[in-house]
Amino acid sequence: MRVLVIGSGGREHALCWKIARSPLCEELYCAPGNAGIAQEAELLALTPGDSSAVLAACRELSVDLVVVGPEQPLVDGLADVLRTEGIAVFGPTAAGARLEGSKSFAKDFMVRHGIPTAAAHVFDDGDALMEHLESCRLPTVVKADGLAAGKGVLVCTTREQALDAGRLMAQERRFGEASDRVVVEEFLMGEEATVLALVDGDTVVPLQASQDHKRRFDGDMGPNTGGMGAYTPVPAVSSALMERVCREVLQPAASGLVAEGMPYQGLLYAGLMLCADGPRVIEFNCRFGDPEAQPLLMALDSDLLPLLDATARGQLASAEPPRWYEGAVLCVVLVSGGYPGAYPKGLPISGLGLQQPDEDVVVFHAGTLDDGSGEVLTAGGRVLGVTARGTSLDVARDRAYAQVSSIDWDGMDYRTDIAVRALRSNQRDR
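Given the sequence above, the corresponding structure tokens read:
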């Protein structure tokens, strides 16, 4: 098969890394890619949002399958354009991608189909938003309705924080058009987890649960980010709880999309809060999570490509189910100083050459570029995702942080507590 992956981040590097290892993969392309992806795939100088250019490349290169990594091209309708031209695409139509593209749409959808989620109010008017925030119950969660790269969610524990969040959204327009509409949600108590599922119409194939670390600093402090690290599996997600997530969240979502005339073919991401009365949906996304994809795809012990292809062609029901590595996998995200705010670019990265050939440790590139001389430079806020697997979570964690210690650039930073809560829980349970 000739495969084109769309995107340039750590998620796309993980997808390319896994797809390249499939015996079914004849040629692998990525647009636009990054310095790490260049080791796995031929890079194409295409803009992911330029559907005409992507379509032309698919025809010229006789691409059999397109795998869309990021959310924006899906929300903008890239899958619609390609499918209309007879090209198989792993990724939902623009209609299905609204589950991520509009939080208010997702809320209404969940209410219609009885999917458990937080209570919410939606505001199109800034004055009405501020009036609500002056008296609403605290803590509360203020969300930009549209796409904001994982940063448009503000958890407010004080009245001052809530009013500041409202001003940031409605007056300062920090998130641009994404905050034309604002969703204010009930604050949920519990532990977070992510369950991703392959969805093809009514067919749902869940993947192993993972847990992301959204907050910028240790101890879950600081602003939300695109994700500072992740691990899989999640001790808090038992087989019984996974069955409940499938029954109460994933299957109703897939069937609801079919019932509303927008059958889904791609990856459905359910961000969950594990509350005392059961799982509730914090958010739906329409693609693999980043950084959840890095540990998940490294934990996948079977071929990914047949699953992607079967989903894209409406044949998921007859595909072989995924098999999983028996241990654990953990990813630590290395970021540029200043992230998620302003940060420098073009800084040389040292230590990448120190990585030993090891199937249990992979450094996935998220925001990098090759300057032409072979030196790898930073090109984003999230730069690398150091990912390791081991027979247990503590072994995987030790391997990941050992590799982190060999990498450096000016201002590099990372969280030192990825999976610490799970490890402490494991110790208490012994």
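The first strand starts at residue 2 and ends at 7. Try to locate this feature in the token string yourself.
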